[in-house]
Amino acid sequence: MLSKIKKTGLFLKLLMKYDISPTDLNDLLRTISIQKQHPLFEFCLSRADYTLDLSYCKSHPSKEFIYAGRGHHTIKPYRILGERKKRLFEKIFYTDSQDARANIAFYENHKEWLKNTDITIPRCKDIIIGEKFTAFLFEYLDLQPLYSGREYQSLKKATFSLCKGTERRKVADHTSYEKIVDGQARIKKLKIFSRQEMAIIKEYRKTMPVYFQHLDLKEENVFNGNVVVDWDNAGWHPMGMDFGRLLLSFYIFHKEQFYDKYLEEIYSFYDYIEDDIPFKPFHHTVLYYFIVFFYGHFCENNETKKFMNLIDTYKKKLSENRLV
């Protein structure tokens, strides 16, 4: 929480039309939210971006701050606007962020992209675009968490549904999802793979068909009824990213048996997909993205020895140009 002096200083900067950093703005808004000062919260937003039309706030006098979510390119905390059946979930992105662009593309095209899936999503009621910020207003759903003990199977169902329900594309999107970027950066820093090994992995990834993928199908984003939220990182990517994230979920929920069972899981992924791709590039790609997601999510790991054994086995098969 900001000190009173720093809060006053940041507030004065906004009044005088000075720019403040995203970190300072989020700290200021969070401090204001703790005091439940919605008018001041909205005033600071309007001073930070004069072009953002916040008139929708006036038609929803009942407001509530919520502190869920860890989005890197959003204004936090998020808010619930309105009462009862007319409640909306407000999520404000930085307009120039990949997350905002991904959400706009998704909600403009989701009916076509998800038409063959059984996935349910919150409806987007409105998108208000400003120079610095873009506000999304979603219908508020009373989301039910996944049943205890069934989390992994539910995540598997959502991943399979998305993979099987979308069609191929020829060109992949660029992704800046922080967990993949962070994981790849850590892999490079730790020199997990040699240049030759990365070249082999890259060639296998190139052979994978491009499908629409979520990239963050974890228990915080998937709910009972196959409801999936948070499409901030979704896009068209080579098959294997969502399966790599799913394999990380298998590690998280079944850590005791992971090292004995992970190969069976990858076979189950492969058996489910309806595509004519060979197993070898699929296996290479899924394992690579599992390692990337692992290093993107975990800075420290108390099972380093076992995990490094898995990587060593993977690297050996890369050098032998085989996986089984």
UniProtKB/TrEMBL annotation:
Residues 190-263 form the Aminoglycoside phosphotransferase domain. It comes from Anditalea andensis. This is Aminoglycoside phosphotransferase domain-containing protein. Pfam families: APH. InterPro entries: Aminoglycoside_PTrfase, Kinase-like_dom_sf.
